[in-house]
Specification:
A hairpin with a 2-residue loop joins strand 1 (118-119) and strand 2 (122-123). Strands 1-2 form a two-stranded antiparallel ribbon. The protein has helices spanning 19-24, 32-42, 62-74, 80-94, 98-104, 107-113, 124-141, 144-150, 160-172, 192-202, 226-234, 245-258, 267-270, and strands at 118-119, 122-123. Helices cover 48% and strands 1% of the residues. The chain has 13 helices and two strands; from the N terminus they run ααααααββααααααα.
Length: 281
């Protein structure tokens, strides 16, 4: 069930250095000591706002958190303030339990509930499609985690196979489709928002809630956007000019060399500057 929302100021970071300062604090080829210092400094709950991750803290139930996380990550593109407004608008319409709302309704009800909704390129029909696909997955598997695991194998080196099949299942019953909300790695997309969702679900620390213990952290990929791409270039982790799947894998491998069991450990700390008010993510 949904908790009483915190005020925006509760999670606001009070001391943010600029991007140049963070870059200057790290060597060209980052050492584990330098990365750990950054992690200790920024990987704290007080630095979460403004990040769509904060919406997951509204809920205690794992099913609610994974449904809210899928919604929040799907809309995590554009300007930060717009993202927060859009995610809040969707979750408000879903009531105190997102998973209960999804399971209790159908495509027609979803389209009615989100009629008039708009987030940049995403329409109410796109959101209805995402929720319809989520409903079908919850009905078949009992949870989004169980669906993801059904497409994964122990020997898989990364989450790519599981993610491809997970997206396929969600799209299978997305009545009318869901626009650009569910890209697939099969098409070469870096799938930044879906990898962000997986980071939230799989990792568990002071920031990430970690509701999916069955998925191993070492298989995660860096959620790659233009900001993280720039960081990867600056740190010498990639020389590729496109922020695509191959680049995401390359940057992840660079971080895996530092911390093999948790290659996206530093993602939150490194990307604080990319989600400040007025900046794109």
């Amino acid at each position: 069930m949904r908790k009483q929302p915190r005020t925006a100021g509760h999670f606001r970071a009070k001391h943010m250095s600029d991007e140049a300062t963070v870059a200057d604090s790290l060597p060209r080829v980052p050492s584990k000591a330098a990365m750990e210092a950054l992690y200790r400094k920024y990987n704290r709950r007080e630095f979460v706002h403004p990040d769509p991750l904060e919406f997951l803290y509204w809920y205690d139930d794992p099913l609610d958190r994974e449904v809210a996380g899928l919604v929040a990550s799907a809309l995590a593109y554009g300007r930060v303030r717009q993202i927060l407004r859009s995610v809040s608008a969707v979750l408000d319409r879903m009531g105190p339990s997102p998973s209960a709302f999804v399971l209790a309704n159908t495509g027609r009800r979803f389209r009615s509930a989100f009629s008039g909704f708009k987030h940049r390129f995403t329409t109410g029909d796109d959101m209805a499609g995402l929720l319809a696909g989520s409903r079908a997955v919850l009905k078949r598997h009992g949870s989004l985690q169980a669906c993801f695991m059904s497409g994964s194998r122990r020997e898989d080196p990364t989450i790519l196979r599981g993610l491809t099949l997970f997206v396929g299942e969600l799209k299978q019953d997305a009545c009318g489709g869901c626009g650009t909300l569910l890209p697939s790695p099969a098409g070469g997309s870096a799938c930044k928002r879906l990898n962000l969702f997986l980071r939230w679900m799989v990792r568990k620390d002071a920031v990430d809630p970690g509701e999916w213990p069955a998925v191993l952290r070492r298989k995660l990929l860096v959620p790659l956007d233009t900001h993280m791409h720039g960081i990867g270039l600056a740190l010498g982790l990639t020389g590729r000019k496109q922020a695509d799947l191959k680049t995401a894998v390359e940057i992840t491998e660079g971080f895996r060399a530092i911390v093999p069991e948790d290659p996206v450990r530093y993602d939150f700390a490194l990307t604080r500057l990319g989600i400040r008010d007025g900046m794109d993510v």
